[in-house]
Amino acid sequence: MDPATFRRHGHELVDWIAEYLEHPERYPVLSRVRPGEIASALPRHAPEAGEPFDAIMADFERVLVPGLTHWNHPGFFAYFAITGSAPGVLADFLSAALNQQAMLWRTSPAATELEEVTLAWLRRLIGLPEAFEGVIYDTASIASMHALVAAREAAIPGVRAKGLAGRPDVPRIRVYCSEQAHSSIDKAVIAIGLGHESLRKIAVDDAYRMRVDALDAAIAEDRADLWLPIAVVATVGTTSTTSVDPVAAIADVCEREQLWLHVDAAYAGVAAMLPSHAHILDGADRADSLVVNPHKWLFTPFDLSAFYCRRMDMIRAAFALTPDYLMTAEAGQVKNLMDTGVQLGRRFRALKLWMILRSYGAQTIRQHLSAHIQLAQQLAGWIDAHPDFERLAPVPFSVVCFRWKPAGRTLSDEALDAANQRLNDAVNQTGEVFISPTKLRGRVALRVAIGHIRTTEQHVRRVWDLLQTHAHAS
Amino acid sequence: MDPATFRRHGHELVDWIAEYLEHPERYPVLSRVRPGEIASALPRHAPEAGEPFDAIMADFERVLVPGLTHWNHPGFFAYFAITGSAPGVLADFLSAALNQQAMLWRTSPAATELEEVTLAWLRRLIGLPEAFEGVIYDTASIASMHALVAAREAAIPGVRAKGLAGRPDVPRIRVYCSEQAHSSIDKAVIAIGLGHESLRKIAVDDAYRMRVDALDAAIAEDRADLWLPIAVVATVGTTSTTSVDPVAAIADVCEREQLWLHVDAAYAGVAAMLPSHAHILDGADRADSLVVNPHKWLFTPFDLSAFYCRRMDMIRAAFALTPDYLMTAEAGQVKNLMDTGVQLGRRFRALKLWMILRSYGAQTIRQHLSAHIQLAQQLAGWIDAHPDFERLAPVPFSVVCFRWKPAGRTLSDEALDAANQRLNDAVNQTGEVFISPTKLRGRVALRVAIGHIRTTEQHVRRVWDLLQTHAHAS
Chain A interface, mutation test: which of B20, B72, B124, B324, most A Cβ atoms within 10 Å? Predict the structure, then answer.
């Protein structure tokens, strides 16, 4: 593509994107295509001859756009609602054009050092001490996997060299998290060879927080049974209810038991920027590692996960190795990102975090976070006041869990589950909103997650209206 | 950022990028900043108040651009030279704006199904059979890690549940690769708990290809010593010399020994699109998995790694698990990308591969690959014809390894190493080219990797001129 053509299509694309971001509500939130519909509309083979970009964009609009689920829609209330904000989108465009690959300091001093600077900015904003060094990964799944590799490295002599198999000196290993922890912790223990049974899930209290007494008991029981406890994962903002584990009390346990403490604050960690919510990270200063995802609630286009570690030397002890073709004169004087993890290649992700933090400024970001929390409180209030709905969990942040439960009628749990699943699906079929359910104590729970920057009271009011309307219809 | 402002800055950015991509040679290839220079030029804290995008872009130009190493410069000959082509850059811009997170089919049917379609296109282009299912990861490091997890899953009963530790029924494990295999294989065996010693590196022949007789002997020896061999990693295009392991003969061994065969074709795999080079994947149809990186030699902005697997059920057996908050009605009828690996979140990477394959078409891509290979042959010819330079490896693709070794003078190996390292650094200091050395049989080797789409004979001639000039000076 010659420069003039790039310019022309670039300008057209800016206009397309501007229009798209201005009117995300023109599309149904949740795509209405059927499985296989997109694939069957596309040719089976790549073309032999090149095609004009206009034709490709036309197919994009015709075939692919109907297959998008619109994460940019202000009626997106499913999972964790996220935002790819305008400064972040521009930064990612620039990042793609620069095509930096920051495996070594010398292959991108700017990406390497901007990562350090922006992660320090974010660290100070959420109140973590200087002792935490940061690195950017793609996802919290990868960040938590690295945390557990570091825990393994710290706990098991020679594990980098000798691994875990065929070693009579290494007993069965335990990692602890609550029943409400994220599935990425399950995948991490599987991936790194500890096995799924190594993950012991600790019971939660009425507010879905890890019970420290149960953690204590589990560790004692495991030690008696000759398991080797190595780590605890505490969650600040669990996925289903955004409950906050008692990090300080868990840190006490970890100090006493000499266990690695990893804090999964992927969703809620940024809320510590708010004076009202700074306490959510109480005790996290004593954690060994923590993950927070700017791509969740910090208006950053997917993907950018910030991993902080007080013992990054353990990550390096596990992973640093320099083959002949990656030797550089400045090794030892600089940070080479390849030393902090599995991935050799690293995108220039810091650029978007830098542009977003500067473009909004901390004040405006706090205002958006507060507004989301406020909207969730409003919704919780409406639910609490309604005789036919029941709230199922506290609302510490911007997610509300509840269910339809009609007053004056006795329905079995199974009937309530089925009715709530139908209600969930019915409001999604309107195309105006998208919610995703979960289960709490084994029962279907409706769940509204507020997190998109364009979501206003009007949108929250609308999902609530739809829920009431369809509850009556179903 | 309001829509009008986004539009304005978007258009300005298109012009900036167009100008940048038109004149990448205005900058020194390798950044000239000193360690810490970028970080110290930036404030210690994020701003409280938002700043205009113009101010941010001004700082980007003033502070960050001098810290870029220009992977877009046609004089970039280091590592593997890569290209973030114009259609790919536009696609990544669109992808950032759409902000799809394709963990589940329903969270982006378009991203999920386009991934399947484009990976099938690429699979057919490189001649792999239908039996290979594809998935996109960020990097080959992650792809190869997943391959070895699958090998572990296939070989060790109950490993997902029970892991590797504290199991008298699981002996020490072996994985094999050549001495020239990529460091990502080392990191993978460490990450997944096999330990670095589990990786046995097999000697290579004169052309840096794995010796199958040595592989045979190693497996026999290990079996006798009660190690459990589980996998062999064959490389098609090793990092130092781009040598090609004898995949078909290795496949014979793997079939006989019942070992997982993973083919690391991250760099060279795309060359199988050329009739002249289709043979490089001979035998790969019998592999269990293969990785090829469009972000290396297929003009795709970093990151996009294509992983193909004949036994994706083993990846799913290891990783598929669906927590309550990710249940969907269509589970079982659709592919949910989260089931194929550690990462839950998935970017819409297929969009750029689709736009690139369509925009260039297979013919033009083949022409570019051929041109790069041709340029490397030319350079190899010049080196072979020069009395003071010595070529150190065959040139099957677009990378040339050689060293300065003056005719008629006897220099110790150490003196030659030092002189070649000085020569490497001297040509890099010109700012016109960037090369990165390696070591071959323990000695410093210069290395010119041709892979950028804008690299022409003029640039290759220039690096050769600079090498000759500075060889005399040093």
Answer: B324
- Find the length of chain B: 474
Full-model pTM: 0.98
One-letter amino acid of B14: V
| Sequence-separated (6 or more) residues with CB below 8 Å from residue B451 | B80, B81, B82, B83, B296, B297, B372, B398
* pLDDT for res B472: 79
Mean pLDDT of chain A, nearest integer = 97
> Quick one: which H or E segment has residue A380?
helix A350-385
Largest separation between any pair of C-alpha atoms in chain B: 77
Query: Confidence band (pLDDT; 50, 70, 90) for A176?
Result: very high
Q: List B340's β-bridge partners, or say none.
A: none
CA–CA distance, A313 with B76 (Å, rounded to integer):
32
Would you tell me which residues 174-233 of chain B have a C-beta closer than 8 angstroms to some C-beta of chain A?
Answer: 182-184, 186-198, 228
CA–CA dist A325, A311 (Å, integer): 28
Please count the CA atoms within 13 angstroms of the CA of B111 that sit on its side-chain side: 29
Per-residue DSSP letter, A431:
S
What is the identity of the amino acid at B320? Answer: A
DSSP A276-311: GGGGGGTTGGG-SEEEE-HHHHS---S--EEEEETT
**Which residue in the set A42, A87, A120 is minimally distant from B117, CB to CB?**
A42
Torsion of CA B209, B212, B218, B222, to 10 degrees: 120
Distance between first and last Cα of chain B:
54
- pLDDT reading at B473 higher than 90: no
Listed by number, the residues of chain B in 115-134 with a beta carbon closer than 8 Å to a beta carbon of chain A are 116-118, 120-122, 124-125
Contacts of A66 in chain B (CB under 8 A): 110
pLDDT band (50, 70, 90) for residue A474: low
How much of chain A is in helix, strand and coil states, percent to nearest 5? 50, 15, 35
Strand A173-178 to strand A133-137: parallel, antiparallel, or no bridges (unpaired)? unpaired
Strand-pair partners of A228: A173
Kindly report the nearest CA distance between residue B250 and chain A, in angstroms.
24
Residue reference for tokens 């950032």: B96
Go through chain A and tell me how many residues it has.
474
- What domains can you pick out in chain A, each with its CATH number? 1-30+69-84+361-474 (3.90.1150.170), 101-347 (3.40.640.10)
Residues of B in contact with A363 (CB under 8 A): 48-50
Q: Cα B264 from chain centroid?
A: 9
B408: which DSSP letter? T
Q: Find tokens 């996998």 and name the residue.
A: B231
* pLDDT tens digits along B105-138: 999 999 999 999 999 999 999 999 999 999 999 9
> Which of B99, B112, B179, B185 would you mutate first to test chain A, the one with the most A CBs within 10 A?
B99
Amino acid at B393: A
pLDDT, averaged across chain B: 97
pLDDT at A472 over 90: no
The distance in angstroms from the start CA to the end CA of chain A is 54
Give how far A334 is from chain B: nearest CA, Å: 6
